[in-house]
Amino acid sequence: MDFSPHTDQDERAMLEAIGVDGIESLFEPIPGSVRLRDPLGVPPALTEPELVAELGALASLNTAQGLVCFAGGGVYDHYIPAAVRSLAARAEFATSYTPYQAELSQGILQALFEFQSLVCEIYGMDVANASLYDGANSVVEAVNLAVRATGRGRVLVASTLHPHYTDVLRTYTTGLGLDIDTIPFTGEGTVDWSRVDATDAAAVVVAYPNVFGRLEDARAACDAAHAHDALAVVAADPTAMGILKSPGEMGADIAVGEGQALGNAMFYGGPYVGLFATKERLVRQVPGRISGETVDADGRRAYVLTLQAREQHIRRAKATSNVCTNQTLLAVAAGVHLAWLGPVGLATLGETCASRTAFAAARLAEIPGCRLKFPGPRFKELVLETPADGRRLARRLAGRGWLTGPGLGDWYPQLDRCMLVAVTERRTEDDIVRFAEAIEKELTEP
Amino acid sequence: MSAPPDFPTIFELSKPGRRAWSLPEAPEGSDIPIPDEHRRLEPPRLPEVSELDLVRHYTRLSHRNWSIDTGAYPLGSCSMKYNPKVAEEVAGHPGWQGLHPLADDELVQGALRLLGELERALCAATGMAHLTFQPAAGAQGELTGLLIMRAWHAKKGDVRKRVIVPDSAHGTNPASVTLAGWKAQEVRSDARGLVDFDALQEVLDTDVAGLMLTNPNTLGLFERDIEKIAQAVHEVGGLLYYDGANFNSIVGKVRPGDMGFDVVHLNLHKTFATPHGGGGPGSGPLAVTEELAPFLPVPVLAWDEQSATWHWEVDRPDSIGRIHSFYGNFGIDVRAYAYLRSLGPEGLARVSERAVLNANYLKTLIAEAFPTPYPGTCMHEFVATAKGLKKHGVRALDVAKRLMDFGFHPPTIYFPLVVEEALMVEPTETESKETLDSLGEALVQIAAEAAGDPNLLHDAPTSTPVRRPDEAQAARHLKVRWKPG
Q1: In terms of domains, do A275 and A391 share one?
Q2: Chain A residue closest to B354 (CA)?
Q3: How confident is the model over B271-298, as pLDDT tens digits?
């Protein structure tokens, strides 16, 4: 099935109009010496019912999906409202492209304008872009902005930022010669910001909550940055923004985050959506697309992609970033989700996650041989220290029907007996009690 | 006459006390263990709407948007072809959507097998040895490829300074070169619209890390000298990068690997028909030769013969590192795989055949009204010029706007930069002869209108949800977010 509508008669008529004797003549510019002689070595075509059956069978090999999910580490099993799923899947959004022709793209442009506004509201910032690839990419772009804005090359990153984000930052900036220092965490599972010296730094990057679920003193992190005129970058969990202070309130110059938890599926790691917001004074340094309001020829409100002179299709080698395609459809879903929640729903979501995490923390700490590695305020996630290797324990719990972790040994060798446990609003107290029993059983009857 | 009413924002529909949300609440009086110093006191000003308000708002917004499902979308360089419904359906399976990326490898064997089979198929289609799915879109693929080139040169102790890009290249090419820490150097096109080989030879030296090339190029023309170009770049120790934006015109006909390319990115949302989502998500997998494979980002997908399982390999000392939070836009890869399996080898070859047929047919239909500055047949797209209408005070922009009133999305305009008043047209293989005939007629009629009544073009569009927006005002009086009252 190739989805093209040509009949034999169409083809003949079209070739005749072009004035060639066959389709192959149109491929004449390709030198014969490099032409492919055989059909491509890809599997033969399937009919639609065969395809559905084959991919269904493949999907069902993913046994992780049937487990009760207490897994975290930057991706969370939140409830996706039916209205969000349904609206974001509308083909008028899904099968459109970048809204360069504004008159035919008001739907996407306005949805993005609203998304930007909602991101500004939750993060307490002035301006937001229309999204980046993922949380890691937002951190990279924030750092690159800070490097441009300050003319400095040193970057301080909390070791409690998601380690994948730090890895991506290092990879992305290989060619730029940045000096990236990670700041160690204390026994509290947070950074002691009073000891951080941001001399000559372009940016200080802190996660809020951090990778352990702990609440960093993000205000102190911002102060440490500002003491030396560095930019403060706060990577904040959007689902916490109904109950936790916003990055803006704590002094952030740039707020970033992973928007997966806002109405987007876990989907084995992507597509996700990078959130990016900053202060008005930095707007001309922002990477990626921005939707802006204006009026049309009749004086009606209208939206366009604005400040395009920042972008690669205009500025080329001197653009603020190389980003072109973003994650619009996921940004639309995130916007619909935030509007579905409203201020009360967002606060409720946060409170439910926080209260159930507290319940889980208390219950899991009662398991003989286990303790909370990092006491103190947290949100949605905790680190459980166990008598076993955290990675091994998580693997064995999967055999009992529970998805948890990750075990932390790969990210932090000193935490090899620890694992992350994430508790969203989807996990009931009953789930938590049974999960704790499963851990107990696993530890006592291995 | 007063202006018609503005379409409301979601914020203007808000009324305190309304709600759409339905979630479990923390038990009355339960401990919400957030200390005061972290507690948010001022709630964000999110809208308060009923679920029906929400549904109607976004449904009405969707009606204010063009899409492939609405009508023809001949946007050059974007490959706006039909996105099969079945790909959406299979991607919706909870076995994909509900999959946590940090689940142990043995719990996600279906996902890993899909990626493994898709890697094999894409390598077969491109003539490359290995591939990573991490890049979330083409531009991220470009950076990944350039960093791999950088690591390969560095491993040999070779410090290079420049990457060559043709003047017709996508803007992402030079922007990615800058981000990779190199200098982008332009090489001009010749009278054929192809890389000027003499000019290329003048700039090639041992400071050149490589050449980035889109083939066919953004003019829709196949770079006939590709073998000579590859040899010249390789002779100075450089690598050849294939920008896969236009792979849809050659799939099943010729492979980048056979042309001498070392690094290839594909845009799955173009060639493999995944939905563009209003500007993303895309997926920009990057394929390389055997020699460059050690530098691919970690983790790398591997098959273990002994246990007959797939797993992620992380111990790769020469790897450039991670480029994405996880494994890339997996959900897009599932759709691309579904598309690839629907078509098979013959179907894929027909994709390029009919994309090229459609482009040449439409080019012929409008050749008098909008000629192309370069001779010969085109591949999947062509770049025509509207400069002949300038004498009537009409520009490419006006043609594009007027085309909307005929019920078509306009082509890409003013790109590539090497053509004056450019109209970059890519009909794609999924449009019928009848649609192309109407599109051609509309364009011919618009050219006639330009001569007879240019105001029809200047005032266009008149049939769209809004008319021409004032872009200058948008930039001058910047308003990029809603603010209360």
Answers
A1: no
A2: A4
A3: 999 999 999 999 999 999 999 999 999 9
